[in-house]
């Protein structure tokens, strides 16, 4: 009987603790300003017209925002704040919160202004001016050891709606370093097995602490904020530790002007480092370094820069960027808010302007904040390449206590476009398109390699003969080189020259093409081509050469496939010398 009473008491005690935890954890939803919503509309419209309907849909859906989790803390100024992940609050000016108690009653808190962000640490904090928030959480003073029990609290989605969950797990690595996500000098992760699902982002990772002084004495302390999950590994989840969160709060929320200037110096140092010259011979390592630098630059591209100037850069990058950069831009668009893709396209524009593999841009002057002051609250930072006598200008602005690039330009101080100027430029472009003005330019087709399959029809003495060919070509701006394999009906030769007339023959040989790639109104590439090739044809053993000309058609917005039509002549040099004339139609897969 005594054991039953103890069990019941323990069960009721646990319910009380759980209820208190619910009061300190909330659902978080972003609130976007009108400029963000309007940009997403404009982006969806323009990108859809450019032929990328699947990407346009991402912008349409992004207007509804996402939901995640967050938890309440009390600042050193005695005010209440809510902490969450940056990727939950990205591009939001304020947050809407929802608290649900154990009985299902909900408290909704609107318009909590975002105070500070750190994109690399995936942290965001907003001020909560609502007296209905009665409970908050404290941070633990020490890091838990491997094997310690931990709890994840938050609102993962079920059927698209948030549902409360408090899950238990253990610390599997108290100091996991993931250099591809966060610079190990800035922070590590707590790796744990407490359950994390979509919607848990921004929720606390907890340890039991009966001495916790949180409102309601909830019995838990925060050791981290849940941020990431390993997709291909079960029960492998990651949290930013409490020490990094406290440094973020002290530096970004309560740091004052001195801390703000120090944060700007750190941002400029990191940007300059990302633009610094480097030499790596091995392609795989070189590509890793390029992407690392590109992501760093993208992190410092502001949302205003993206809104005012990013859409043209984005569309151009989708059409023309090399495969490595294009894949990164698409990944940024799909895996988070699609505005991330716009910012990555601008980062690509900055990167290709500086070309750190070739050039040596360094800060023009020492990073003295007073000397860098531009106008108002903006700062101008200039990189200089001594060998090229070239300057790259950037203008930096404080966005939620996070310094970012608002404008940039090569060899000239950048002009930040106002929304009015942007609108007038958009109208001018539209009027120019409507007048039917011609836009034809010689422009390299962005995809370098292609594999083609073609049908060939040749006029022979016996009539029209059909054949097929496969080929591989590597493209430069004006030249394509590769090889082709031919499957065709052999020529009819004198019986004495061969014991039995074969029905099918094949040939292989090199191929060279000259082309003039023309971009027609950013809709299609038309590439007039002249080609020559040759090789060996068996059976019977014959030498042949083929040559001709035609045109290759590549849709600008879908460069993975192209179509070609051409006239050709095939000449043979053994036995009976003759030339057959015909046509060839091809389809290419571009890689």
Automatic annotation (TrEMBL):
Highest taxon listed in the record's lineage: Bacteria
A Pfam family it matches: Trypsin_2
Entry-linked InterPro entries: Peptidase_S1_PA, Peptidase_S1C
SUPFAM superfamilies, A to Z: Trypsin-like serine proteases
Annotated stretches, region: Disordered: 411-433
Signal peptide (from-to): 1-19
GO BP terms: proteolysis
UniProt biased composition (Basic and acidic residues): 414-428
Keywords linked to the UniProt accession: Signal
One GO molecular-function entry: serine-type endopeptidase activity
Protein name: Uncharacterized protein
Lineage: Bacteria, Pseudomonadati, Spirochaetota, Spirochaetia, Spirochaetales
